[in-house]
TrEMBL record, chain A:
<dbReference type="GO" id="GO:0005829">
    <property type="term" value="C:cytosol"/>
</dbReference>
<dbReference type="GO" id="GO:0016783">
    <property type="term" value="F:sulfurtransferase activity"/>
</dbReference>
<comment type="pathway">
    <text>tRNA modification; 5-methoxycarbonylmethyl-2-thiouridine-tRNA biosynthesis.</text>
</comment>
<dbReference type="InterPro" id="IPR019407">
    <property type="entry name" value="CTU2"/>
</dbReference>
<comment type="function">
    <text>Plays a central role in 2-thiolation of mcm(5)S(2)U at tRNA wobble positions of tRNA(Lys), tRNA(Glu) and tRNA(Gln). May act by forming a heterodimer with CTU1/ATPBD3 that ligates sulfur from thiocarboxylated URM1 onto the uridine of tRNAs at wobble position.</text>
</comment>
<keyword id="KW-0963">Cytoplasm</keyword>
<keyword id="KW-0819">tRNA processing</keyword>
TrEMBL record, chain B:
<dbReference type="InterPro" id="IPR032442">
    <property type="entry name" value="CTU1_C"/>
</dbReference>
<keyword id="KW-0808">Transferase</keyword>
<dbReference type="InterPro" id="IPR035107">
    <property type="entry name" value="tRNA_thiolation_TtcA_Ctu1"/>
</dbReference>
<dbReference type="GO" id="GO:0002143">
    <property type="term" value="P:tRNA wobble position uridine thiolation"/>
</dbReference>
<feature type="binding site">
    <location>
        <position position="62"/>
    </location>
    <ligand>
        <name>ATP</name>
    </ligand>
</feature>
<dbReference type="GO" id="GO:0005739">
    <property type="term" value="C:mitochondrion"/>
</dbReference>
<feature type="domain" description="Cytoplasmic tRNA 2-thiolation protein 1 C-terminal">
    <location>
        <begin position="280"/>
        <end position="310"/>
    </location>
</feature>
UniProtKB/TrEMBL annotation, chain C:
<keyword id="KW-0963">Cytoplasm</keyword>
<feature type="cross-link" description="Glycyl lysine isopeptide (Gly-Lys) (interchain with K-? in acceptor proteins)">
    <location>
        <position position="101"/>
    </location>
</feature>
<dbReference type="InterPro" id="IPR015221">
    <property type="entry name" value="Urm1"/>
</dbReference>
<keyword id="KW-0819">tRNA processing</keyword>
<keyword id="KW-1017">Isopeptide bond</keyword>
<comment type="pathway">
    <text>tRNA modification; 5-methoxycarbonylmethyl-2-thiouridine-tRNA biosynthesis.</text>
</comment>
<dbReference type="GO" id="GO:0005829">
    <property type="term" value="C:cytosol"/>
</dbReference>
Length: 487, 341, 101
């Protein structure tokens, strides 16, 4: 043990015992080192902390506070905001329970003095259609290196300090609090209860998922959409998510089982740039849940326990839950399991076709927004599954309704209306949406009873992309080259 | 309540396909099962006309079904292949004798030539003798390594161009999981490849790669194929058992999970700067190896010298000593001798 | 004979759901011939406090993997785990690390 004087309170690995103060030092240092090593968070950047109320989120917020505080040796230099999403409707919680939870959360967040936003998942039904389109134009151009950016930021600060103005970052934070104070007031008075029809629509959508696995996947996808939306509309270019090492090892295993092998580095790596303009970072990924729980306990970091979809579920209720039980049990017998899995994932990267700019929107999955992994050749598991489907069904059943035909049905004379409220009969059947999805999203969708319960921004975007695809097919022979389009 | 087959819609359905959940009649099931394997073979271009193909036959359900289906498809689609059954006798009394009898029966039933290679003739050791020396903890390592080489050597003796084995979808999914859990990045990359084998070795392929184990059993059952179904009497590898249990639980939750895992495995991409072992040849027997001595030679050396732990765990430095025929020090000998049953 | 022992038990991380949502419990273990250790405490908790789904808390004779145990704010692995002998006024904390984040 490091200091060899105080008595140990915690054992991390075999032979690695810590006393209270050494542990604190170790914990705080890891956070700094994580951000410092991966130089993706630039000074002065607005960073949204995705807060779930759980132990990892709270530890992360606390570390951000520590890092930004005046007397920190190597101060962190970004501008944080916090987002909490109330998902109680999905778990069939009563509004009273949800309100109670939200007040608890609000108290904790108020104490941080960072600007915060508390939303309900029902807000999904108010998202604009353009949400799912990748904003290629807005990717910030990072011309200089990270060091240059820090240098110039420090230079700015020094100049301002000499002017007798307080720290630039503090100033900006204060401005934000002032900006948000009106928002905060309206929220703390009483949390605005979402429209009953939205709550009902949300419940219906989740009830249309036949398996818990699909429900959990859907929740994850939709939650990310909402986070992305909030980040974009409030000018946050980064989102920090509090997943711990343990949680990520479990996610790795369940994602492999769900068919997301192509996207493992994005789903579990330090930085996830699938959206382009907003980058997700995971600064807690080197911490095990044990370390986080101990830290929170020893240093009184509060946390709120919110029941999730699979709380108290039995062992085999969903793939995610099964993976969690499996890894936890295996870890008990083979203590290097989590770290081995974690290290394996670091050796993976997204396949080469993803790092180049995507040619057009069609190449991205409608739901998870990763580059489609369904363009595999005929000698692949994907094709084999399609073949099996074909062979087991009567040939005549498998007819693909072309979008063109269905358009003719609803609009007169083939005149397509791109965005018409009158076009309400769901033109998009399962067939059409499926082509726009990656392998694992396809499997998730298969577990849904019907597609029309999905929020309108998804359905409209699906329609839009399908139409573009049809149009493109028609004019393909006339296009001169495969130039990148912003579809 | 009788329902009709979802494919032909005329006959009554007698089984539900584990792979897709469709209820189908016998004939449609046979057709679908065989067609899928045909598709696998054709899309991956596994064979060329005129090739001599060795089928790894253990007498178990996978290899029996493989042999049967290959024979059927070879005739139906004129692959133009010359098929031979190759079987390995590990020398496990009671277990292997029975399965070998099954293989001999297969030979007659399918009218295919058969070649049997034994550990005894190749290495001078039977599995029974090995277990006596090595114990029950690491015996599977020995058997796996030896069997792989035995199949290759048998094939070489016959002048075979390709070997096919009966690995099914469940096996591959299990291997993906296991390699992932153990952090074996090199194997993780290779294990979903349908054809494996590098320069100098006979390429091996897995035509049953996308066939579910349950469907293989159903096929064998309905076609009344003869196979031997007991597990090896020496206990199975503990770690693989975990992966297998997890896979079975997954399958119960979502039958497509097996294919989903294979899809994940096929789409994993390893960073370029990750160190991979370089493949060379064994200096003693010429087989491919990433070390100076191939695994089989190391294991054999251990057996012959009465050092059963040689080859289990990492003692690469000692390989040089062995190659040079130098004696090992006291401490090294002691480390390699201890066995736990 | 060992005197009765007073303990403060705490449940967190979601484990409190199995105990009617109550996080802190003051309990008194009755006097018995052998000294109390954590192994016996678990049995006692199962018989007297656990309201439901005991398999979510206990597995075999120890806690379910994923549940951390602290003895007076120190990792129980440093204190002998199941064999730690309980003392009067000890504080034992059970934190579940499953779910939430």
């Amino acid at each position: 043990m490091k200091c060899k004087e105080a008595s140990a309170v915690l054992i991390i690995r075999v032979g690695d015992a810590f006393c209270r103060s050494c542990f604190k030092e170790y914990f705080v240092h890891k956070f700094r080192a994580m951000l410092g090593k991966n130089r993706v968070v630039f000074p002065g950047e607005k960073v949204l902390l995705a807060y779930s109320g759980g132990p990892s989120s709270n530890a992360m917020v606390q570390q951000v506070q520590e890092g930004l505080s005046r007397d920190a040796p190597k101060k962190l230099r970004f501008i944080p905001g916090i987002l909490f999403i109330d998902e109680g409707a999905v778990c069939n919680q009563s509004w009273e329970d949800r309100e109670r939870t939200m007040s608890e959360i609000e108290n904790i967040l108020k104490a941080t003095s960072f600007p915060f936003h508390i939303l309900s998942l029902e807000q999904l039904f108010t998202l604009p259609q353009t949400m799912l389109q990748m904003n290629l134009a807005e990717i910030p151009k990072r011309d200089g290196s990270y060091k240059q950016a820090v240098g110039s930021f420090l230079g700015q600060q020094k100049a301002q300090a000499e002017d007798g103005v307080s720290d630039a970052a503090d100033r900006l934070t204060q401005i934000h609090i002032a900006d948000n104070s009106s928002v905060e007031c309206s929220q703390s008075a009483a949390f605005s209860r979402p429209a009953a029809e939205h709550t009902a629509a949300l419940r219906d959508m989740f009830n249309s998922a036949k398996t818990l696995t699909a429900k959990q996947e859907l929740l994850h996808l939709l939650r990310n959409h909402l986070i992305l939306h909030v980040a974009r509309t409030h000018g946050y270019s980064k989102v920090m998510s509090g997943e711990s090492c343990t949680r990520l090892a479990v996610r790795l295993l369940s994602n492999i089982s769900l068919g997301r092998g192509a996207f493992l580095p994005l789903d579990t790596g330090f930085s996830d740039n699938r959206y382009g303009d907003v980058v997700i970072v995971r600064p807690m990924r080197d911490y095990s849940l044990k370390e986080i729980s101990f830290y929170n306990r020893l240093f009184n970091v509060p946390s709120v326990f919110i029941p999730a979809l699979d709380t108290k579920a039995s062992g085999n209720s969903s793939i995610q839950h099964l993976s969690e039980s499996f890894i936890t049990k295996l870890q008990a017998d083979f203590p290097s399991t989590v770290s081995t899995v974690y290290r394996t994932s670091e050796k993976l990267h997204v396949s080469r076709t993803d790092t180049t700019q995507p040619k057009n929107q069609q190449d991205k999955c409608l739901l998870c927004m990763c580059t489609l992994d369904t363009h595999t050749g005929p000698a692949s598991a994907f094709f084999a599954t399609q073949k099996s489907q074909q062979l087991s069904e009567k040939k005549s059943l498998k007819n693909v309704p072309s979008a063109k035909d269905s358009e003719k049905q609803c609009c007169n004379g083939g005149q397509c209306c791109k965005e018409s409220a009158s076009c309400t009969n769901s033109v998009t059947g399962t067939q059409d949406i499926v082509h726009l999805l990656c392998y694992s999203c396809r499997v998730t969708i298969k577990d849904l009873n019907s597609m029309d319960k999905l929020p309108s921004y998804i359905l409209k975007e699906a329609e839009h992309r399908t139409r573009r695809m049809e149009m493109r097919k028609e004019i393909e022979e006339f296009l001169l080259d495969d130039h990148s389009e912003d579809i | 309540m009788p329902i009709n087959c979802s494919s032909c819609e005329t006959q009554r359905a007698v089984l539900r396909r584990p792979k897709t959940g469709h209820s189908v009649c016998k004939e449609c099931f046979f057709r679908a099962f065989e067609e899928e394997i045909h598709h696998t073979i054709v899309s991956a271009q596994l064979f060329q006309p005129g090739e001599k193909v060795g089928i790894g036959a253990s007498g178990g359900k996978d290899s029996t079904v493989l042999a049967h289906v290959l024979k059927v498809l070879n005739e139906r689609y004129n692959y133009g292949l010359e098929l031979i059954l190759v079987s390995v006798d590990e020398g496990i009394s009671g277990y292997r004798d029975d399965s070998l009898e099954t293989v001999k029966r297969n030979q007659q039933q399918y009218e295919l030539p058969l070649k049997i290679v034994s550990y005894q003739e190749l290495y001078g050791w039977t599995m029974d003798q090995i277990v006596k020396q090595v114990g029950l903890k690491n015996n599977c390592t020995f058997c796996g390594v030896f069997r792989r080489q035995a199949l290759d050597r048998g094939a070489m003796m016959l002048g075979v161009n390709k070997i096919c084995t009966g690995h099914n979808a469940d096996d591959i999914a299990e291997t993906v999981l296991m390699n992932f859990l153990r952090g074996d990045i090199a194997r993780l990359r290779r294990c979903t490849a349908i054809t494996t084998g590098s320069e100098g070795a006979i390429p091996r392929c897995k035509p049953l790669k996308y066939a579910y184990e349950k469907e293989i059993v159903l096929y064998a059952y309905f076609k009344k194929l003869d196979y031997f179904s007991t597990e090896c009497i020496y206990s199975p590898n503990a770690y693989r058992g975990h992966a297998r249990a997890f896979l079975k639980d997954l399958e119960a939750l979502r039958p497509s999970a097996i294919m989903d895992i294979i899809h994940s495995g096929e789409n994993l991409s390893v960073k370029e700067d990750v160190k991979m072992p370089v493949q060379g040849t064994c200096t003693r027997c010429g087989y491919i190896s990433s070390q100076g001595l191939c695994k089989a030679c190391v294991l054999l050396e251990g057996l012959n010298r009465g050092l059963p732990k040689l080859g289990i765990g990492k003692h690469h430095k000692l390989h040089h000593k062995l190659l040079a025929q130098e004696p090992l020090s006291e401490a090294e000998t002691r480390k390699l001798k201890s066995i736990d049953f | 004979m060992v005197a009765p022992i007073n303990l403060q038990l705490e449940f967190g991380g979601g484990a409190e759901l199995l105990f009617d949502g109550v996080k802190k419990h003051h309990v008194t273990l009755p006097s018995q011939s052998d000294p109390w250790d954590i192994k016996h405490l678990l049995v006692w908790i199962k018989d007297n406090l656990l309201k439901e789904r005991s398999e979510l808390f206990i597995q075999g004779d120890t806690v379910r993997p994923g549940i951390l145990v602290l003895v007076n704010d120190a990792d129980w692995e440093l204190m002998g785990e199941l064999d730690y002998k309980l003392q009067d006024q000890d504080n034992i904390v059970f934190i579940s690390t499953l779910h939430g984040g």
